[in-house]
Every structure is written in structure tokens, then in C-alpha cells.
Write the C-alpha cells for this entry.
Amino acid sequence: MDANDMGNDLKKVLLTEQQIQDRLAQMAEVIDKDYAGHEILLVGVLRGAVMVMADLARKLHTPVQMDWMAVSSYGSGTKSSGVVRILKDLDTDIKDRHVLIVEDIIDSGLTLSWLEANLRTRGCASLNIATLLRKPDAAKTNITPRYVGFDIPNEFVVGYGLDYAEKYRNLPFVGLLAPHVYEKH
Ligand code: XMP
Ligand code: MG
């Protein structure tokens, strides 16, 4: 899918495919340095983190394993509440493992701060967070991801794994939706 398939649903491209791939390469270089001599267990948060996981993992030279979690955060509409339910847990025992959570976006941070606390109780050797996007103006927690791709404005974004009503995840770039898309609902 590309911008031509979106009709006039796209207001603006925020991050191009090239910008995303270049930034992920930089992040992978830093991660390789930080984890030299170790193996990493990458934990992707379904479904949004699928693209970040696929591209970041392929840029790493460090040996990795990949596992996935699915969580739902209860809340009204598009706002997360911080009350989180595990829909799919890890298949891996993370005790004594170096865990790196891979996320698409940190918005309020409530989902990830719950997830971080949950994983910490399982006795991993280390736990860090890599996120492609972060909205600093939306932060409601003091969660500190070690690796951040881009800080973005507090607006709803789609593409590169991120959806609106389950659509647009397969855009290779990150974009802002045109207001008329929201206003229909
Ligand atoms: P919190 O607020 O808990 O949100 O950090 C985490 C989850 O909410 C989703 N989210 C978005 N999805 N465009 C999206 O398509 C956005 O701008 C956006 N902001 C938050 C996302 O699933 C994230 O993991
Ligand atoms: Mg997500």
C-alpha cells in the first residue's frame, strides 16, 4: 500500500519510508554496541509493532530471539486507561534473559508502564524499551524508553504498523489522517 491507495484520506506524510529505515539503522547500531556479547530477547507488542520488529531485527547483528505479547488497554475510544489485560502472553520464560520490548508508539505511556512492571516481576536479567515513535506531549507516566526513533506531535498517526480502525497498517510511511476520516465516526 502507498499514498496513492489512500485517496484523499491522507493529510500529510510525517515520516517517509527512507527516514524510518535510516533511523532504525542508527538505533540498531547503538543496540548492537550496548548488547555486545549478549543475546537479546526481542518482545514485540502486537499488533502495531510488527513492522518495527521486522525491520529493526533485520538490521541487528546481535543474536536475537523474538517473542510477542498482545495486550488490550481498556479505555474510552482511542484513549488508553492504564488498565491492561493480557490477550496473548509470551511463550518464552524470560528469567535471566536480556529483554528488549519493541513498540510502535508511546502515547500516554500507560500501556507500556504496566507491561514493563509486569515483565520485571519475571526476573529478567535486564529490561529496556525501543520505540519507533513517542508523543512527549501526551506522556502521563515517567516511562523512559532507552531507544526512541522519533518524537512526534500529539496527533493521531497511521501507517508502518499503526492503524485507524485496523486500516493503514501496511503503509511503508507514517502519516496523519485527514480530519474527514475521523469526522465520519
Ligand atoms: P498508550 O497511551 O498506553 O498507548 O501509550 C499505547 C497504544 O495506543 C495505540 N496508539 C496509537 N495508534 N495511532 C495509532 O494508530 C496513534 O497515534 C496512537 N497513539 C496510541 C498504540 O497501539 C499504542 O501501542
Ligand atoms: Mg501498540
